Amino acid sequence: MDIPISGAWWLSETACVRIPGVLSRAGSDWQLELIGTLPITQSDEEGLALTDLATIHGFCHGQHYTLQGCSVEMVGGPSATFEKIAPGEPGDDQNWMRCSVQTVLRGDLVSDGTLYEQATFQLVGLEEWWPLSGFKGALSDQYDALPGVNITCPDRLDIIIGAVEKRARTDRSRTFAESIVVTARRNEGFTLDWLHSEVITPLRALVAIGLQTSSDAFGLRLVPLKEHTSDAVVTGQRSWVDVIEAQPARTRVPGRSWRRPPALAPSAEAMSAFLPAWIDVARTCAVALDAVEPRLRENAAQGQLLEAVNAAETLQRQLHPDPSEFPFAEEVRQALSDAGCFTSAQRRRVRDAVKFTEMSLEHRLRRLSEGMGMELSEWLFEKGSAADWAFCTATVRNVLSHGLTPKHTVHTDPAALIAMIEYTRLVIILRLMVEAGLPPGASLIACMEADGDLRHVQRQRLVDWQQLARKIDPKR
Q: What are phi and psi of 475, to 5 degrees?
């Protein structure tokens, strides 16, 4: 697609007012610069507030465009200085307007509130992660298309992941390629935001975790749920729109091949059972998943540790609900009551404080690691060091989170911080994968042993957990 895109632009409510403008990329975002102004409501009031975002339609180079999530950044010209000229009036072409744009759709005009019934997209790295292919061998040209894997979710969402053939020919060449495409369908429809959070994010994170690199969606095409366009009436064809990214994603992960599947991925035979469970786990545990999905993080190591440990605590609470009864806390409350100490409200406060100590952060981290399965936990934590890791990580997190001043300096030790971050993230990942149905036995451990990145974490030489625990508490 040629950038910038010049054409005519308007609001659906005032389609008679159409003005020229240029849509272009501004870094990783979209920007629309107009000659003239559109009647977009702007607030002059100061203070933090939500802004009503506008939808702008356009026609450029023979194609329709819909710009969603538009907000005015700047307005210039006579109206901004001395002479107020309303949009569409003579002389408005002496004004100009610049808008930021969140989403660019091409192919048909889409109104506010439009629902979609189908979406197709690809993911960076999915072709390297997906274990199924129609090619029979590394050197064979024989190809037999395989049926896609069907995923049915409880919310009546159907997902199909499968191969799509791409053929091309010229006078002197013939090419054939296979792409892995995701198709999502929902009869009652869905919004673009819902698609990103409920479908794209779980699958993208799964691929990113398996390949240990960032991933992203590209080639997203949407089919509106209700077709009221003139093209659909005349031709009988389904209308569609393509989502155009401001910063196109790379399409492959160098150095990876589907013939060498990642360690943290189900087998081809288990794929149809694993994926629905993974989507459900990813939706439920979105906080933990966001904390471990591979991507560039620019915050300091202490901030990353807080993010990882807080996510681990959240995950443990979601997968291992707290007990309904706390006997020791109730004994304390009863003892205070029998002694006639404090008021009933004060005694309840004491009981609630004691309940908190019965399930400490250290205990939650230890339970989270045990939830992976003893075999997997013993592989990751050699010499039974899981308890020491939980103690060190919980102690340092509390120091950083509550601004404590300890006698030790572990919370400022870069090596210790990095070890805690990497181990905590890996515990979260493994716990998520096991919860979705990935077998935690010898087969998974063998795959992780063969994976250099995972093996390096398990064999880290940054800290000795037992020695670090004694440095924090010499009496331990």
A: -85, -5
